[in-house]
Amino acid sequence: xxxxxxxxxxxxxxxxxxxxxxxxxxxxxxxxxxxxxxxxxxxxxxxxxxxxxxxxxxxxxxxxxxxxxxxxxxxxxxxxxxxxxxxxxxxxxxxxxxxxxxxxxxxxxxxxxxxxxxxxxxxxxxxxxxxxxxxxxxxxxxxxxxxxxxxxxxxxxxxxxxxxxxxxxxxxxxxxxxxxxxxxxxxxxxxxxxxxxxxxxxxxxxxxxxxxxxxxxxxxxxxxxxxxxxxxxxxxxxxxxxxxxxxxxxxxxxxxxxxxxxxxxxxxxxxxxxxxxxxxxxxxxxxxxxxxxxxx
Length: 296
Ligand SMILES: Nc1ncnc2c1ncn2[C@@H]1O[C@H](COP(=O)(O)OP(=O)(O)O)[C@@H](O)[C@H]1O
Ligand SMILES: [Mg+2]
What we know:
By secondary structure, the protein is an alpha/beta fold. The chain is built from 12 helices and 10 strands.
């Protein structure tokens, strides 16, 4: 799949990394599920910064806590410690009306794996995309229709698709609709949780391209979550590796791919077919697996 995208990370000027360009900052984030003896810590002291306009690839195996991390930023996971700041506002401390206003503002948007779960089957595409704008309640119907048409076109869909319903679309089209619904609110950050994992490989490449273009042309920052290094490598400026609820490695994409430090990352890089040309060194991989088993 990487062959079809540029194999290099985007050659964008690296963001000036100071507080002015900081968009999302997680410090000491802890999340646990359950209570009493059943209590299980899922995320351990997570520190993460996302700067304006950059794409961060968050990778990790299934169960490592990627979705939990995204859900905590949305205020939908049981945080037991730490802080989450977005555009200099501590959103993890917002409650009630302040939280509703923040969400309504729409600067932070998300896209999940399965577009069918994100779209109401009884609501037309146009109404789905318009929903966030209607909640903001500042625009008349004509202005809303224009914004919806522009959002659909910006994800490569004909605006006439607005009258259709989700079941009348392909998986790739549905995911474009979900992305349009996020874009219509002019977000500065998109959280994308396995956005292409449920798609066939042709749609996957197209959606990856679309996301890459959105990052480049509109400067929308993205946190792109995936269990698949191959999907992320072509679009991320930086890669962050989550392993059993810990961030074990992070760095510029090319650096992590060329010089992976943590055994888990080494295993991932070694197993990404487009990076090894298929000639995986089995002995080395077994050693890495043993090193990881020792960690457990
Ligand atoms: N609502 C929940 N209640 C209890 N445990 C959960 C819940 N959601 C996730 N978990 C557990 O948290 C861990 C991380 O899950 P998740 O964040 O979905 O990982 P990933 O997205 O990396 O696959 C898993 O062990 C999962 O079983
Ligand atoms: Mg997940």
